[in-house]
Amino acid sequence: MIRAFENSLGIRNDIKWNNFILITLYHIIGVYWCYHYAFPAKWQTLIFAAIMYIGSGFGVTGGAHRLWTHRAYKAKRPLQLFLLMCFSSAGQNSLYQWVRDHRIHHKYSDTDADPHNANRGLFFSHIGWLMLKKNDQVKQAGKLIDMSDIESDPVLKFYNKHFNYFKLIFCYILPTMTGIWLWGENWKCAVAWQCFIRYLSAFHSELTVNSLAHAFGYKPYNKTIMPAENRFVATCTLGEGWHNYHHAFPFDYKAAEHFDFLNFGTFFIRFFVRIGWAYGLREATPEMINSLAERIGDGTPVHFPLDPKDRRTNDRIVG
Question: What is the DSSP letter of 127?
Fold first, then answer.
């Protein structure tokens, strides 16, 4: 089993045994628990699980990813607090760790310095990287990433310091107890739907961005990189699967060329713009999109046909 973690280049990470055991046991217990206790479930439980799936997903996509990692838009404090609550409910690594690792991923994508290098296979890029200690290249790259914007924000500093408490409350305790308190759901069923089905579904959906979206799909913007446009990933992550575009234009708040119906992250951001909680949305222009696609894309059609004489080079600000 240990040999399975070695990549084709011979680089090997030591297993992080506490993570390996915890992740493995969590999945085993989850399958057992849900088989025995997930049904019968009240309709409110099913709807609430779907709401939590969307909310926790927005905390990752709209918060950790588009706002704090890429600064693709600006958010006023009420929205920031809401996004932090949603991110807590996703039950992932701390915001600081998430932002640092994702900035490393973009700067050193699919190299030995990438925390979830897709060249090491689907299992590694999906979940294996969470079970292993970081190699020296990843550690060194992390030291070079500018995290001053996260470190200097007093709210984020407080949040990161107490992150485990926020995760425990918003990912496990409150979602589970809500069903028990408000509509009298059986506690075992509530645990099944919130702590296992909803949590693991959202968890693995987000991980497909690192694995499936770096292995399968088309590349209309940059055929020289591994990230690809993957509709399945875009669907289950509510808008994060247009990955070739995202790596080409990481500053774009949509994380996609166009507004797809299932791109809930973009829909919510636009909603918060309308109520005044978000502003300064950054977006790639059609001229930028087509220019890059024509130079290094794989020939897949894009959505902004232009006169080739009409080019602009800077991203625009909307909102």
Answer: T
Evaluate whether 240 touches 253 at the Cβ level (below 8 Å): no
Predicted confidence (pLDDT) per residue in 268-307, tens digit: 999 999 999 999 999 999 989 999 999 999 999 887 665 5
Residue 115 · residue 101 · CB < 8 Å: yes
> Residue 55 and residue 231: Cα distance in Å, rounded?
20
Q: Beta-carbon neighbour count of residue 226 at 10 Å?
A: 20
- Alpha carbons 297 and 244: distance in angstroms, whole number: 10
Element (H, E) at 248: helix 243-248
| Parallel/antiparallel/unpaired status of strands 316-318 and 278-279 | unpaired
| pLDDT one-digit tens code per residue, 176-207 | 999 999 999 999 999 999 999 999 999 999 99
Average pLDDT over residues 222-244: 95
Is the distance from CB of 218 to CB of 208 less than 8 angstroms?
no
User: What backbone phi and psi angles, to 5 degrees, belong to 239?
Assistant: 125, 5
Contacts of 110 (CB under 8 A, 6+ apart): 117, 118, 119, 214, 225, 226
Q: Is 103 helix (H, G, I), strand (E, B) or coil?
A: helix
Structure tokens belonging to residue 308: 């080739």
- Comparing CA positions, the residue from 292, 283, 291 lying closest to residue 318 is 283
What's this model's pTM, rounded to 2 decimal places?
0.92
Q: How many CB atoms lie within 10 A of CB 200?
A: 16
Structure tokens at 6: 């070695």
